[in-house]
User: Fold this.
Amino acid sequence: MFRIFMINFKELASTYKTPLYIYDLDAMKAQYEQLKSAFKGRKSLLAFAIKSNSNLSVIKNFADLGSGADCVSIGEVRRAFLAGVPNYKIIFSGVGKSDDEIREAIERDILYINVESEAEIGRVELIAKELGVQCRISIRVNPNIDPKTHPYISTGLHDNKFGVEIDAAKRMYIRANNSEHLDPVGIHFHIGSQLTELDPIYESAVIVADLVRSLQSIKIELKFFDIGGGLGVRYKDEETIKPYDYAQAILTALKGLDLTIVCEPGRFLTANAGYFLTKVLYEKKNGAKRFVVVDGAMNDLLRPSLYKAYHRIEALTQSQTELSDADVVGPVCESGDFFAKNYPLPILEHNDLLVIHSAGAYGFGMGSNYNTRGRSAEVAISHGEVKLIRRREEFEDLIALEKEYLDN
Ligand code: LLP
Assistant:
């Protein structure tokens, strides 16, 4: 990714301490503009998938560019509003929404709710009826296509819990079209994340576009063709899909259909614009095995532990020693607490810094307080200026919701 300003990691570490998340807002903006321009000449809405990075300042950075928001909980919907995303650009998806969440989404008059099951359409209809309104919906279709990605982030196969089959979708559209309280405006599919092959996306788009055509033949006219997110990024040496090719594949599938294209990118916009900065505590050896112990841990950045995901590590050190393989591990009490296994690094000193790359997506957001560790601070850089966008969690923050219940 193009880094306009050099980031002074050492200075950031001394000002904000470690572990620390750092986001380059200009790089995020460049990614947004690249994808948006791939769809130029067509009506399109990029709805940033907030789950990938839900810091309010990051969402606002996209909202200022005209982005919408793809949300998967009412908490995310509230974040989108707070960050200035207009109601008519907010989408609420997810396989399980509570009645309260559905009610609030309807009351907030968002663009549409993505419905993921026949049971759910019943709940949405009932709640819209109680509120005396008509709710705009879209239906998430599961095209049963293998996206060829990590099984944990594959979502477009019948084996996955997401969406409904074509036949069920058709029934649901007919039902919605006949209901006073439902307004079917869109169709949605999202087959998985970190996609690096275009064919599965194209095949899915063809299947879903065919459904749009068959709905048209029974006078059900949709306005939005929501292609989900999923565009992969380069963590190591992956060949990724070019936004232009992606857009062309969708447009080819949509031939003859004049729907607004909605795209829900997360990782593509944020992953490579984020860095996780951690400090070396010490080196140790168990027999021949070398470990570098750092102050960040799996509670800060879970992807390596959960998916064995690769994140490039850059060592900032004076050390001139030869590289040798080490496991980079954190202080959490789990053998699964690592950022890398057998990673070539020079011998490191106490307080040397490691920059863990591609940490802008599904980094902070998947963090936890496991082992009573406060979550890191987050800073953003824009036009060379650094600002704090989330302060570090302190011990008092962690116990705030429990303390009053302690029996003395
Ligand atoms: N839309 C829907 C309906 C989604 O489920 C997702 C991601 C997105 C959009 C955004 O996908 P993206 O453009 O970021 O690939 N924690 C995993 C990724 C989980 C993705 C979940 N859904 C990871 O760290 O790789």
